[in-house]
Write a structure and sequence with these properties.
The structure is a homodimer of 547-residue chains.
Chain A: H1 8-12, H2 24-34, H3 38-41, H4 62-72, E1 77-78, H5 81-86, H6 93-100, E2 110-112, H7 117-130, E3 134-137, E4 154-157, E5 165-169, E6 174-178, H8 183-192, E7 195-196, H9 209-214, H10 222-225, H11 228-231, E8 232-239, E9 242-245, H12 259-262, E10 271-278, E11 280-281, E12 288-294, H13 297-309, E13 317-321, H14 323-332, H15 339-346, E14 355-361, H16 365-381, E15 385-386, H17 390-397, H18 406-411, E16 414-424, H19 425-440, E17 446-451, E18 454-455, E19 458-468, H20 474-491, H21 510-514, H22 516-529
Parallel strand pairs in A: 2-4, 3-4
Antiparallel strand pairs in A: 1-2, 5-6, 6-10, 7-11, 8-9, 8-10, 12-14, 12-15, 13-14, 13-17, 16-19, 17-19, 18-19
Helix pairs in contact in A: 4-7, 6-20, 13-16, 19-20
Chain lengths: 547, 547
């Protein structure tokens, strides 16, 4: 019987696998915007509730499987269809579509769950000898085709057993973990001791420290705490040519920084098994919150730039929604046409140009108060209207919920995806306009943009788009739209990614983006550490497909 | 006639080449401490005022020199003895000793001053073809044997002509420069526009941006502004296999960060010709100053740690002198036995354990006031006695003068050198004690220590030592003492350097420090970018001497 368990659907559904029905506000928006009916929305498009059946056996020999069992223990080596299917993909929209079509092109032959660095080293040595591809995964929340296994082989899953918290060093303000540890496990442990990891990506609940580091992620409070590359002090990396262990110096001038060769290496250079990262004091009662409405996006971004360049201290969460995203939030939350809304409009904060900003500041009470005060002053100077702390608090409370919107939207036949970039301030507005124009050239589309990671020298732009799928051509349609989107970002001076990473999805742009000499250098690093090309093969990062 | 010009002495004297006679306080200290007389001090030891004569011609052929002239212009290619001698060394103590002995082992064959990135590329292509060593230099203030030319060849001097400020981007808060630009030139240009580079190494007046980046330096305000690796956004690097140009994104997730492969590469991987770095608003009138006396070093470092871990904002200058350095300053400045001194002693701030702390905070006025206030509160909690802003201001005013102490001390036959390390908080005190003990095992020595770069997770320790030279065995004596010093740092958990870099001086420790797999990776990067091993050859960073 094809029950709920072991279905394709049970694989691709996000997080806790429970479908949240579309809120009335979202339904209304989608219906109005795309001219859809309730019947259109309730169609269970590409529902994929069949039991997973791969129809192929693992390509590894019994002897090879046996050896893997010897290394990791029989119970930590999985060759069943469901385990292999589950680890064949991340959460890239194209991958979700394919899973919904019940298609799995090239699953790993085996999923292994090593329990120690030593086992990882043994696994790599064996794979190297036998020329078996090895693709490390943690939470598998990659949205860049970073954990696919086009050459099959071993999916080396760190989230199962290599997930101990090894040491919290309260003198140094550091924590040392095995990289399979998941966000909530780490944060709960730290909170109990009065600390926080300060790193809260959208995928926080279902992503691992190793994934954060390997894909060079950022958390929602990164404006204050920094991206993952700013948080990692030391690491262990197991490579086919040996283990590299860096030390937890607060800073050094010992030649160049090898940590920075592995942060963002996306499993192509080695398996990051251990990380020492900064921790901060956990004092939520000190946190200051502020929310503002600005008259337009240009003024709001100007204010953000000034805030980051004025050395008034920095907010931790610093976020602005562009006019469409702002109006979408207002409409879904029932704010539209409320008394407050009418008041705002009367004050000149007009629908279609106004923008919603969220700010939170963590740390010492005096510091959080000062940064909030200074932010309010700057906002006022830019005609930002202060609307209290509650909207920011409310947003923070439900921040992980938005990831659950995708599944019911896809069930309703709506394409929905997010793409992000980083850009210097002087190109931000032109990029925002150009990419928005590109996304909106598609007949039925709803495009929301925000800035959520802010720096002295620029910011990110985060694009969310919804559009009805072209039934029967969902994948080709999406691929073409996505390609044009990345082209538009690239041509307008944005980076290929600010925090999602590159994977295989953005690999085709890498050489043009960074130049052939730079790609050549990356390939040389790869070829040295992974001479047979067994690590996450298949063009990840734009590196040669096979050694 | 051997005049003042063209002497060995004119090469090794620091900065403006004017000797400052030893202040009375320093003379007294040295006399008392080492049992020396005025006659001992006035001996002009290893005075080296002979005219430089190398006695060897450049090993390059006339045709090769001609080709270099074709590339850079005849006036930018120097083969005279003085130019070659001048570019044969940096300011490592052992190098200064050798120059004082009028010994120059292996000068470059030629010094060239390229005017453009294109000329650098042509030079490298030619050198690659002809297998000629190329050693890039800027201000030559290296204290790690980083710019020596053991294989002769080309000293590629960027400070002469490749020193234009290309763009100040006031929107992005960045400046783009050619890397030969010197500190004061850059800072003056920025100050005029209302900005500062925020990077003030001890060598500021005589060091170049390229040197800062290549040797991974830090400025005295780095606690607030960051080390050079935190300031650089983009760069151009000319390598024998092509040019790498990174972009000025505020942050990215485009695989790993290639900037970080070149920051700290010390001329071994390519010639950094252009850098885009952060700038900050220049508002000296906002700067807040504070100075404190603590009862002992342990309490003072505890307070620093708390300040950095409490998220109260951070000071820019944050500095503590250990008891000997504190007492030395008091004695030289005539503070000893003053009314204030007697008052402090009565309050329990005793000679031999008390420590002097300097703090300055830059930025917005509200911010500087807050951080100063919070720092004062924390200091008070740690029994730190506030002594106003003036001592810090006074120190800042004369901060570049201390570099001029070395020449008259060496003239007086006193060995004096500085070595530094970075260390996590939990090893700081034990390292301080152990290394101090090592340095003091030498019969006549005066050892001063400070912390000058502070982080959430640790700090640097900066050791200054004075000791009479062993006449006739100056170099061997120094080398043995220096070797034991680095061993002591290494064995006690300190990094080989926090901001001086590695060069050839610390290269012998690199493999043990970072491990053979890590050195192998570095060598692979080197071998790919510089296949013939022409770039800064001779074991720099612990890389293979020759390709």
């Amino acid at each position: 019987m094809s029950e709920q368990k072991n279905t394709y659907r049970s694989i691709f559904l996000w997080g806790d696998k429970k479908i949240r029905p579309l809120e009335e506000g979202v339904r209304k928006l989608v219906k109005n915007k795309f001219g859809l009916t309730d019947t259109d929305l309730d169609q269970s498009h590409l529902f994929a509730d069949d039991e997973v059946r791969l129809g192929t056996s693992p390509a590894l020999s019994e002897k090879q499987i046996k050896e893997l069992q010897n290394i990791c223990g029989t119970e930590n080596v999985k060759t069943d269809d469901y385990s292999r299917a589950r680890n064949a993909h991340g959460y890239f929209f194209g991958e979700l579509l394919k899973l919904r079509m019940e298609t799995i092109d090239s699953p790993p032959d085996v999923v292994v769950y090593p329990k120690s660095e030593q086992e990882v080293a043994q696994l790599l040595a064996f794979a190297e000898k036998e020329n078996i591809a090895v693709t490390p995964v943690g939470g598998r929340s990659s949205v860049t085709r970073g954990v696919e296994t086009p050459q099959g082989g071993i999916s080396l899953d760190l989230s199962g057993k290599l997930n101990r918290i090894l040491e919290v060093n309260e003198t140094n303000h550091t924590v040392t973990v095995e990289t399979g540890v998941m966000g909530p496990q780490l944060e709960a442990h730290l909170n109990k001791l009065g600390y926080t990891c300060g790193h809260f990506p959208q995928s926080f609940e279902y992503s691992s420290v190793g994934g954060w580091v390997a894909a060079r992620g950022a958390g929602q409070a990164s404006t204050g705490y920094g991206k993952i590359e700013d948080l990692v002090l030391a690491m262990h990396v197991v490579t086919p040519v040996g283990i590299i262990q860096t030390k937890d110096y607060p800073a050094t001038a010992e030649a160049w920084d090898l940590n920075k060769t592995f942060i963002g290496s996306e499993g192509c250079l080695g398996i990051i098994t251990r990380v020492t990262m900064k921790i901060r004091s956990y004092r939520p009662k000190n946190t200051a919150y502020a929310s503002f409405i600005f008259k337009d996006f240009e003024t709001a971004t100007s204010m953000m730039r000034k805030a980051m360049q004025s050395e008034i201290g920095v907010p931790h969460l610093f976020r602005i929604s562009d006019p469409v995203e702002t109006e979408t939030a207002f409409s879904i939350n029932g704010f539209e046409n409320s008394v407050s809304d009418r008041f705002l409009k009367a004050m000149g904060y007009k629908t279609g140009s106004r923008c919603l900003m969220f700010v939170s500041v963590e740390g010492d009470k005096g510091y959080t108060h000062l940064v909030k005060k200074k932010t309010k002053q700057l906002a006022k100077k830019h005609h930002g209207f202060y609307i209290g702390g509650s909207p920011t608090k409310k947003w923070l409370k439900q921040r992980y919920e938005s990831a659950y919107l995708r599944d019911p939207l896809m069930d309703a036949g709506i394409m929905t995806d997010t793409v992000e970039t980083a850009v210097p301030w002087d190109k931000l507005i032109s990029l925002w306009k150009a990419v928005r124009t590109y996304l909106e050239h598609r007949e039925k589309s709803h495009v929301m943009v925000h800035i959520s990671h802010v720096y002295e020298n620029g910011a990110n732009l985060y694009f969310t788009f919804l559009s009805p799928m072209k039934k029967g051509h969902e994948l080709e349609d999406y691929k073409a739209y996505h390609k044009g989107l990345i082209d538009a970002i690239h041509q307008n001076g944005g980076s290929l990614s600010h925090h999602h990473g590159i994977g295989r999805a953005l690999a085709p742009w890498m050489e043009e983006e960074i130049g052939s000499t730079a790609i050549g250098l990356m390939q040389a690093v790869k070829d040295h550490l992974d001479p047979k090309g067994i690590l996450n093969p298949g063009n990840t990062l734009g590196l040669r497909a096979e050694a």
